[in-house]
Amino acid sequence: MATITVTKISRVNPATNSSHDTTNSLVLPLTFFDLRWVKFHPTERVIFYKLDKDNSSRESFHSLILPKLELSLSAVLRHYLPLAGRLRWDPQDTKPHILVLPNDSVKLIVAESDADFSIISGKGLRPETEIRSLVPEFPVACDSPSVLALQVTLFPNQGFCIGVAAHHSVMDGKTVVRFIKSWAHLCNHETMSLPENLTPFLDRTVINVPASLDAKILEILLYFSEEKEDVRSLKLPPMEKISPEVVRITLELTPENIEKLRERAKKESTRSQLHLSTFVVANAYLWTCLVKTRGGEVDRPVRFMYAADFRNRLDQPVPETYFGNCVFPLGCYGYKAGVFMGEDGFVNSVEIISDSVKGIASNNIEALCELYVDGTKRVKPGTQSGSVAGSNRFGLYTADFGWGKPVNSEIVSIDRNEAFSMSERRDGPGGVEIGLCLKKCEMDLFISLFKNGLDN
């Protein structure tokens, strides 16, 4: 087991911004799209960077690399000011808000690991407890939690990684990745200015949905709350300790794999109007493998969840660089495991997810919210709930802080439920990279199903 030693804990303040009067506070209300995630565990991610011989010593790291990271972090927080704040829910308010006070800051932990960097940053099987130690612990028992925590870990003479823990009600995956890419840009170019495609859009009035939907989502929060008596509590559900039996792997579906699966779906389905995007095909395949891995009774209930981006799906489009959440959870509810466990499991999964994705275009946000609330209330105890985090369109592998692009990136927070992560592949166009955490005995079966299904 690798040893992690904390060498420094600091608070990084946003650089002075003449457009924001530092004697005043900033209040940013949560929107409809933020509210679903108020009781959700933080989004956690780790990005690995290999260093060359000249830069990887302790001396070089602490005298050159760390000061650059800290300086550029302060600079990027000037643009992403809400990340220095905290969540608050005052008695007179109908919903929470982000509050940034003068001198607010972000906690940055600096640590050192004696792990083998090539293994822990690789794609093979790794103990999840070692990956989890690379992201900072997030305060779950706090009624006014901070919204971001960071950890930089050095692997002497090998490389370093950046661990990010962000409150999901403040940023969706696209915003988290844009923040990382913005930080990398300022560090690499030693500037204080961001290009337009990385500059966050902070105006909340662009989220134009009926106000009545806020109440619907706040009502459903009770289903995710440990504190039924205090609906306004911002404490997160307690996080279970990760079993030492849990391992992580990173797999790939190449463009050739995706095309092969697409052709298989066309051949096996009796329907002609399927939506066969990479997202649909990859998720259908992974979900089928996951249900088969669990095995058990064919009548047991299962559901698959994903978050759809609504930046281009509202009546008034939302800017791509919008800061916050503009995703909403959608689900495939009411199915039994047997639908996915037979020879036709993959094509059934393709048809179900295809119908769900096509349904986004034919339903407005009110109807989709109703479907989500109703589906959530009908979930039976013991349901196998699978989900996907991330996207193959975020472009995180372009985040170069000045020492080359990442060698790997992992969404750590998938280790708490049956979720897999999805991103673009590092070393080639098209296809997807998939992260997954399971107990070792389950993982062996999953890998076997995954590889055999592609070979056959």
TrEMBL record:
Record key words, sorted: Acyltransferase, Transferase
MF GO annotations: acyltransferase activity, transferring groups other than amino-acyl groups
InterPro entries: CAT-like_dom_sf, Plant_metabolite_acyltrans
One family name in Pfam for this protein: Transferase
Keyword Cell membrane included in the entry's annotation: no
Gene3D superfamilies the UniProt entry points to: Chloramphenicol acetyltransferase-like domain
Domain of life per record: Eukaryota
Protein name from the UniProt record: BAHD acyltransferase
Taxon lineage: Eukaryota, Viridiplantae, Streptophyta, Embryophyta, Tracheophyta
